[in-house]
Amino acid sequence: MKPAPFEFVQPRTIEDAVRALAGSDGMARVMAGGQSLVPMLNLRLAPLERVIDVSRIEQLRAVEERPDAVVLGACVTHAAIEDGRVPDPTPVGLMRRIAAGIAYRAVRNRGTLGGSVALADPSADWVTTMIALDARIEAVGPDGRRSIAAADFTLGAYMTALADDELLYALCLPRYSAAARFGHYKMCRKTGEFASSLALAAHDPQRGYCRVVLGATDGAPLPLERTAALLAATGQWSEGLRARVGQAFDEDCAERRFDDYEQDIHRASVVAAVREALQQ
Amino acid sequence: MIEITLTVNGREVTAMVEPRTSLADFLREHCRLTGTHLGCEHGVCGACTIELNGEMARSCITLAAACDGQQVRSIEGFDDDPQMEVVRAAFHAEHGLQCGFCTPGMLISARDMLRRHPGISEQRVRVEMSGNLCRCTGYAGIVRACRSAAATLSACADGTTRQGE
């Protein structure tokens, strides 16, 4: 239960971090809060030669408020979001609520938004949330900066569009109007553990935006198009909708071949998230 | 090996460490502060909870090398802390421990919780303390102790206000 030896570097600037990544032949991992990476090192699940600790890079904690978006540095912690120490792009504090449900406070004090998204654990809250909120992932590498839509970023379990020599440095979240409605449902058997099922619904009629996303599957989060269309076309929750949302969900994920139990818990999460969005 | 200097319970400590050394092992083996306990070593059980720069953290999944220049407070550093005195007394009075293995982490988590949520409900105590496991399963006493400490701390806060008036 102790890590194998590795080299440790602690760059002070984004440029130094990118240089350290470029010189590592793909055998380095970036560490922000280390709340997933260090357990994986302790369990010897992550073979690597070099850990690049980016927690000392001030620029990665920067927060920028634009008229149409909030940009959060990759090293903003879950606790900072939970406490409202950084702006929330949703008018209802959705990000704060999600942050408060991640693991435990001691973990949230160190774990970061960018680290969670870059690791791409399918059960992690932010991976699904970023897709539901239509965030953009800001990355930098030896060839410069690029911006990736969250929906194109997570390719599968622990697989992302980031190249070995790229660093995720910020997340750009569009602002939602006061008319926006959200639903969020996380299913866990024990408080604070990774989700068994996770669903998010976001509907902003003013922006003409509606998305429902299922997370905590065995792969990348699944955008549910038929379910979202139903949510966008519906004004208010009624119990009769339960079966219709369930059916839209079943059609949306027909190709994912969940077993009966998974199908049931995911359907229940999605129905709960849609219901919440329609009851606000 | 790399050289680190950190402040542990108010005292500056300089040492050579391997990058893979956890803060918990550093505290236990280098500083000989064995009040920090290691249960699961992957951030689930909470026995290794300490304070890092005033915020609680898991020392088993924090690398000592990453803490260079930072302030660490382990359970031994809370001896004279007035809030911890209240929490400790409540754990004693309410039978909030059996074997004691989880207790250092429980005390630090409970104190942190009570600072963030004064007057906390029982349900909320159960959620907030869910990151600390007691293998003796003595949760009823632990929850009672947290509630009792919350009541004592609120009474103290009210008293201070009144005296201030």
Task: Describe, in plain words, how this protein is organized in 3D.
- The complex is a heterodimer of chains A (about 280) and B (about 160).
- Chain A is α+β, with helices and mostly antiparallel strands and about 280 residues long.
- Chain A has three domains: about 5-55, Uridine Diphospho-n-acetylenolpyruvylglucosamine Reductase, domain 2; about 60-175, Uridine Diphospho-n-acetylenolpyruvylglucosamine Reductase, domain 3 (2-Layer Sandwich), CATH 3.30.465; about 180-280, CO dehydrogenase flavoprotein, C-terminal domain (Enolase-like, domain 1), CATH 3.30.390.
- Chain A has eleven helices and 14 strands.
- In chain A, the strands form four sheets. Chain A has a five-stranded antiparallel beta sheet. In chain A, strands 11-12-13-14 form a four-stranded antiparallel beta sheet, sandwiched between helices. In chain A, strands 1-3-2 form a three-stranded parallel beta sheet, covered by helices on one side.
- In chain A, a hairpin with a 4-residue loop joins strand 12 (about 195-205) and strand 13.
- Chain A is globular, with a radius of gyration of 19 Å.
- Chain B is of the alpha+beta class and about 160 residues long.
- Chain B has two domains: about 1-75, Beta-grasp domain (Ubiquitin-like (UB roll), Roll), CATH 3.10.20.30; about 80-165, DNA polymerase, domain 1.
- Chain B has helices at about 25-30, 80-95, 105-115, 120-130, 140-165; strands at about 1-10, 10-15, 50, 55-60, 70-75.
- Chain B starts with a strand and ends with a helix.
- Chain B has a five-stranded mixed beta sheet with strand order 2-1-5-3-4, with helices on both faces.
- In chain B, helix 2 packs across helix 3 and helix 2 (about 80-95) packs across helix 5 (about 140-165).
- The interface of A and B includes residues 34, 39, 103 and 192 of A.
